[in-house]
Amino acid sequence: MALRTAEVNMSIDVELTDLAYGGDAVGRYEGRVLFVPGGIPGERVRVEIVEERRGHARANLLEILRPSPERVEPAFPELTNSGCQWQHIAYPAQLTWKAHIVRGLLVRIGKQPDALVHPTIGMPAQIQPWHYRNYAVFTVSSAGEIGFKLMESHDVQDLDECGLLHPALDQVYQLVRHKLMDYFGDTLGEMLQSVTIRGAIGAVSSTVAGMASSSIKAVPTLLILNARPGSMIENPHQLAQELMTIAPGIVGVIIERVGGRYGRVFVGQEYLTDVVLGRRFRISADSFFQVNPIQTSVLVEQAMGMLDPQRSEVVLDGYSGVGLFSTFLASQASRVIAVESQPSAVMDARAGSTLNNQNNITPLEGTLERILSQLHYRRERIDLALVDPPRAGCHPKALQALQTMAPRAICYVSCDPSTLARDIATLCAGNRYRLVAAQPVDMFPQTYHIECVALLVRVGTK
């Protein structure tokens, strides 16, 4: 029976049975799937239906009639509607549900009915799963609020502090926030569009998430301000100079779009040097790097353990960024071909090769599908491949080229299990590759986002 229009805005009691990728709990009403933000499977709840679509409806949680034993009090309730959708779920349960979601997507979308998904590797038990990020973008509203955008909204949740940023960077954020509010006053929302904070946590090895504020050490930090289009910041160089001294650890301040789309002012450095498992990486302001330094080491170790490159092999690192995986692959393989389309990341990767005294990495700038086509034309060999695409997954032509190049194994690192499952279905079509296993790694505690490492081997390979 389909929901009638009159049923929108009515309240009903529902049994919740599952969690969906996207963060919502799932129940059923009159044969239709019902998505309920803030719920937990096993709970009986009272909800208000707020939206109906063909095949499903959405509802707001009104009352918890029978709570789950996995329900906890949110540590930072102000972050619930701006990204931390799962902080009402006990952390061990978050890990269990993430593995469950990955397996469900691999079965349904990836067409892998026997998919082996290992338990999610969470943050170390001695560390609270908060204050783990080395990077955050704070939006500045037209009213001068500074914080995170609310989900499905242009409104901004004003934040005096940030429970996701590493403690040293949270201190920087609080000081910078007050400085900008004092500097611009009522015109803050007219002048700035966003504030980005990026820190090199690994460069100061004793700084870990969850440490007491009295023992927090400053970390090298980049501060990037984006001017609002059409604004005219008076003397931006002076502002940058003042921000350099506002908090310990700030090594560079960049103000983008000053006086127009392409204007740029910077003081100090335009990049950071971070450390992962003893290797050094240059990270420019525009380059991507993993946001959870503790779990980044785990991610690298898992990928390297799965792929297991041999000294005689040539390895492809697709969507290679600043060279995170290339650096570790190069220590075991004969040669690494690193393919990245973002110019700043390619420059960082080349600088990283020098920092780590490695001469067997070949960084190539361009899209993966184009570079693979060129490699195939030149009849170059690829024995193993690692790909770490953005959330949208691999380009279809890149997948086709990978199948043509036929490496003996492919390690797929993904931040979106739905596109991971889609691409695995493509790679395994025609019985060319088979999925060995998938390993979720919790890079994003308190959120529904899931990082995953999957290994595929060519059919017929031992």
UniProtKB/TrEMBL annotation:
Claim: Ligase is one of the keywords in the record: no
TRAM domain residues: 5-63
GO MF terms, alphabetically ordered: rRNA (uridine-C5-)-methyltransferase activity
SUPFAM superfamilies per the UniProt record, alphabetical: Nucleic acid-binding proteins, S-adenosyl-L-methionine-dependent methyltransferases
Keywords: Methyltransferase, S-adenosyl-L-methionine, Transferase
Residues binding S-adenosyl-L-methionine, per UniProt: Q290, Y319, E340, D388
Catalytic residue positions: C415 (nucleophile), C415
Keyword S-adenosyl-L-methionine appears in the UniProt entry: yes
GO terms classed as biological process: rRNA base methylation
Name of the molecule in the record: 23S rRNA (Uracil-5-)-methyltransferase RumA
Classification of source organism: Bacteria, Bacillati, Chloroflexota, Ktedonobacteria, Ktedonobacterales
